[in-house]
Amino acid sequence: MNPSDLARTAIDLTVVAPCYNEEGNVAELARRTRDALDAAGIAFELILVDDGSTDGTWAAIKEAEADHPAQVRGIAQPINGGMFAAWRTGVAAATGNVVCLIDADLQNPPEAITRLWDELHTKNVHVVQGFRSSIEWDRDARFVSSRGLNLVLNTMFGDRARDNKSGFVMAPRSILADILDFKHHYNYPQTFVRVAARAKGYAVAETETLFQPRRVGTSFLDATPPVKVYADVLTDVVRGLGEFGRGRRHPVEAMHVTAPRSEPPAHGYRGARKILLDTYFASMPMHAWLIRSQTKSIYETLHRTQWFDRDELHELQSWRLQRLIWHAYAHVPYYRRVMGEHGLHPRDISTPEDLTKLPMLSKADVGANLYMDMFADTHRKREMHKIATSGSTGQPFVTYVDRQQLEIRFASTLRSLEWTGWRVGDKQVRLWHQTLGMSPTQIVRERLDATMLRRTFIPAFELTDGGLDSLARRLEEIKPVLIDGYAESLNFLALYLQRGGRLNFQPRAVLSSAQMLTSDTRRQIEDGLGAKVFDKYGAREFSGIAYQCDQGDDHHILDESYIVEILKEGRPALPGELGEVVITDLNNFSVPLIRYRIGDLAVAADNSQACECGRGLSRLGQIQGRTQALVHCANGRWLPGTFFAHFFKEYDHLVQFFQVVQHEHGTFALKIVQGRHWTTPAWDDLLTDLRTYVGDSQIDVHFVDEVPLLATGKRTPVVSTVRPDFQTL
Asked: What is the residue-wise DSSP string for 572-599?
C-alpha cells in the first residue's frame, strides 16, 4: 500500500497513550512523538488518556496541549479503569485513518512508531505489532517470565508470535475498534490484542522495536506479587480460550466473536442423526474437496445467525463488508485502481448502502482482468478452485473461488436444505448430473459424499422417450424425503404426473434449481405428489444465493454471505419493482466479486415485514430472465439447456459464445463464436464428444461473429420450439 493512499483526512495517524501516574514522562513522550512523525511527514495527533492518575499527570497533559496545540489532545477519565478502558476511550476519540497504541512509559520508543507505519503500508496485513527486541532488555526475572508466558500463549492459541503480549500496535481505526471489542474483562488486555485479531480473521505482522528500561516512575507490575500475576494470567488464558478459541478463525466462524449477541436455537440433531452429522463433518477431507472438518462450526454459526433480526444482520453484513473492502483495496490491483479512479478509500464504504459509490462489475471486466489484476496478492493457488460456466448466457465464463467461499457455501447449502423439512439421515434423490466435468479424484469424493448423506443421483441429462416410467419406478424404490433437481428435470416429472402417472409414496419436499419453474409445473408437482415445491436461486459463481422457506413465496437471501442489490435505472428498486440483480460476495477473498452483474432480473421484496418463519434474512421476490428449454435428440434423449452450459464450459478455450437452436426433432443448429485458441482438430474432438450425448442428431454448425443479447442482457444458450409429447414421454 502507498502511504498517500491512506492520507485522505487532515490526520493520517492517531497515537493513543494511556497515562497512569506518568507526570514525568508526558512531556518527553509528546516531544519525541512530534519530532519523529514530523520528520516522517505523517500528519498525526497524540491523544493522552489520563486514567485516573493520583499525581500531576493531568497537569502535565494540559501543559503538553499548550506546547503542541495542533497535535496533542488530553482526555481525563475520573477513575482508574485500566489500560483497556483507556485504549477504547482513545480509539473512540481518534480522527486518524490509522491508530497506534503505545505505552506512556517510553519503554517503546516513540521513534519506532514510524517502523510500524512503514510495515502497515508495505505488508499485506491488517495489523502490525511491535515485538520487543532483546538487545537492551535486561535478562531479569521479568524477561524470563515474559518469554515463558509468550510460549504458553503460542501453545494455547496456536500461534508463533515472537512477542504475543506487546501492546505496541497499529491498525486502521475501524479494524482496531473491532479487535478491541472484547466480551470479557482481562487483567492484562494487551496479552490478547493479537489473539483477538487472529480470532476475528485479521492478518497480523510483527516488527522488531527496542524495549528500553523505564527511567521515570514505576510499573504497576513492580508492586504486584508474582503469585498474583501468574494467577491473573491463568484466569485471562481460560477466559481467552472461551472467547477466542484456539488459532485463527474462519471469517464466518468468527461471527460468534463479533456478531450481535442474539441467543440462537441449536440445530436440533440428536441420537443417531447427530452421530451421522458429526461423522460427516469429521471426515470432510475424505469426501469434500478443499473443505475441512472445521466447517461444522460454520454450519452451527449459520444456524444461529439466520434468526438474527434485520438490524443485527445489517450490522453483521457491514462488519464483513468492511473487511472485504479493506482487503480488496490493499491486495487486489483491480479494485485499488477502480477505487482510486473514483476517489474512494475503504473508509468510504462501511455499510451495504455505501456500495453504490463503487461501479458495477461485469463478466467482461472479470475476464479482461483475470488473472493477476483480479487475484488478491494473498491468494494460495492450492486453496483455489476454478469455476467455469456458460450459465444462461451462452458465453463461457471463468473465475475462481477459494477454500473460504467453498466452506461457507457448503455449510449454507446444508442449512438451506433443512428449510424444506429434510434432515441429515433422510434419503434424497437428485435429478442432476453427478460427475460431469469432474476429475477422477473429485468423482470418488462425490460418490462417497452421496453415500454418507444417503443421496442418490439420477442423471438429468439421460432422460429418454419412454423413460419417465423408469424414473417413477426408481423414485418409488428409493422413497426419498427430498427430490432435488434442475427445473428442466422436474418438468419431466410434471409431465409424467400430468398424463396421469402416480407415485406410491409421498416425498416431504421438492427443490428446484438452475432455472425457474413455471407456475403450471409447480402446481402439477404439488398436486400430484402432495409435497411443497421449494425454489433455489443460485449461480455457479456463488452456489445458492437465496432459498424459499415453507412460509412464503419470496426467497430468503443468504445475508451472511451475500449483499444482493435489486437495481432499477441505477437506484434500488422499490418493493414490487423489477430490477437487475447485483451481488457482492462476502466470502471470496482470493478473487473478490464486488457489485457483480450476474445477468438476472428479479422483483424487489418488501423487507419491512418479517417472514412468518421468523428468520431475519432479507428476501428476494420472483426471479425472471431464466427460461427453460429442451433439445430432443435423434437417440430419443431430451437434453435440458443446462446440459449445454455444462458441456461447453469445458471448451471455453475454443468457444467464446454458443447458441443451440432447434425447430425439429433430432436436428438442431449450433451457432458458434470462435474462441482465442480455436483449432479445427480441437473442434472435431468437441463434436465427437458431443455426439456421445446427442447420438446421430443432425448438427448444422454456423460460425458467427456474435450472438445477439436479449433485454435481460443475456444471450439465450438454447432456443427450442420443440415441445415434449405428453403421450410418449
From this structure: EPPTT-EEEEEEEESS-SSS---SEEEE
CA distance 702 to 202: 52
Hey, what domains does the chain have and what are their CATH numbers? Answer: 13-244 (3.90.550.10), 633-720 (3.30.300.30)
Cα R_g (the chain), whole angstroms: 30
φ and ψ of 166, to 5 deg: -65, 135
State how far the Cα of 377 lies from the Cα of 591, in Å rounded to an integer.
Answer: 10
| Stretch among 207-216, 353-362, 411-420, 465-474 having the lowest mean pLDDT | 465-474
290-306 core/surface letters (b: 16 or more CB in 10 A; e: else): bbeeebbbbbbbbbbbb
Q: Nearest Cα to 511, choosing from 471, 532, 491, 484?
A: 484
Q: Please choose, from the candidates 673, 655, 107, the residue with its C-alpha nearest in 3D space to the C-alpha of residue 388.
A: 655
Please state, for a pLDDT cut of 70, what percent of the chain lies above it.
86
pLDDT in tens, 259-288: 444 444 456 789 999 999 999 999 988 888
Q: How far is CA 448 from CA 295, 299, 454, in A?
A: 18, 20, 10
Closest among 517, 539, 624, 627 to 578, alpha carbons compared: 624
Contact 440, 703 (CB under 8 A): no
The separation between the first and the last C-alpha atoms of the chain, rounded to the nearest angstrom, is 62
